Amino acid sequence: MNAEGGLVAYRTIWVSDVHLGARGCKAELFLEFLRFVDCDTFYLVGDILDGWRLKRNWYWPQAHNDVVQKLLRRARKGTRVIYIPGNHDGFAREYAGNSFGSIEVVNEVIHRTADGRVLLVVHGDAYDGVMRYARWLAVLGDHAYTLALGLNHWFNSVRRWLGYPYWSLSAYLKHKVKNAVQFIGDYERTVTDAARQRHVDGIVCGHIHHAELRESHDMVYANCGDWVESCTALVEHHDGRLEILRWAELRSQVAVNPTDSESTTILSRVPPQTEVVP
Questions:
Q1: Left (φ > 0), alpha (ψ -120 to 50) or beta: where does 25 sit?
Q2: 276: how many CB neighbours lie within 10 A of its CB?
Q3: Cα 241 vs. chain centroid, distance in angstroms?
Q4: Residue 241 CB partners (closer than 8 Å, separation 6+)
Q5: I want to staple 236 with a disulfide (CB 3.0 to 4.6 A). Which of 12, 57, 174, 241 is the partner?
Q6: Alpha-carbon distance 110 to 121, whole Å?
Q7: Are 110 and 118 contacting, i.e. CB atoms less than 8 angstroms apart?
Q8: How far is CA 224 from CA 62, 144, 221, in A?
């Protein structure tokens, strides 16, 4: 892997919960990330579009459109792009099995890593008890979450004015609340148990906006996070190794050209690595 004068190449990238159409979406940061990376397979693990917010109040700035165009361009240039709808873009589940602009739409998919592990890839809302049994409560929580993201926006506006980097106040508050911490733990156990019942080696999901990678001898739990708070992605290196990338931290260590060129990102801290052919 060598990005000197070009992109950082991975075997696979997973992102979830971009929430295009929501005011909290960090589309500009996501565009920076897309200009920084390349891969063979790119998974969009649900809630890429926020149909809930768009239905209530149409919001679609140019940066959100640029993200869509960037992903379509990647698919046209040969990257396999697979879209797994979530609860906020559940309308797309009706089109599972079809392709749009070379982007495949599926409800779930099996991914085989370069080192032979079999991973189930799903958005994860099917394993959320609130979504399954009390959707009205999820919608109510979504309104409260929108308020928290609004506070996060103004908080970071002040930080930028003072010269500080992006830091998610909403994520910090969420992880300090006992019930939220318990919910995250319950969710991880539920999806891991589901993967074990499917006789796979692990699961990749999103939904709860909490990036996490846990690898044990019998199971992998990987949550690729979100692009409204943590700005994270899960990547697979060419030898099968998995890693969570935190763009808010990584971008301060790389030089990112603000143009739309896909050959001008320079990585200064990651040394070249030998690609292992699966």
A1: beta
A2: 13
A3: 18
A4: 115
A5: 12
A6: 6
A7: yes
A8: 25, 23, 10
Q: With residue 12 as reference, give the H or E element that holds it.
A: strand 8-15
**Could you state, in order of their start, the residue ranges of all structural domains in the chain?**
8-267
The beta-strand segments (E) located in 70-136 are: 80-83, 99-100, 103-105, 109-112, 118-121
Report the distance separating Cα 202 and Cα 278, nearest Å. Answer: 19
Q: Which residues of 179-214 are buried (b: 16+ CB within 10 A; e: fewer)?
A: eeeebbeebbeebbebbeeeebbbbbbbbbbbbbbe
Q: In what order do the strands lie in the sheet with 118-121?
A: 109-112, 118-121, 202-205, 220-223, 212-215
Q: Which helix (H) or strand (E) holds 19?
A: none
CATH of domain 8-267: 3.60.21.10
Looking up tokens 């002040």 gives 158
Residue in 218, 223, 222 with CA at minimum distance from that of residue 197? 218
Compute φ and ψ for 81, nearest 5 degrees: -110, 120
Given the structure tokens 């992903």, which residue do they identify?
71
Each residue's pLDDT tens digit, 223-270: 999 999 889 999 999 999 999 999 988 887 775 555 554 433 333 333
Give me the pLDDT at residue 17, please.
96
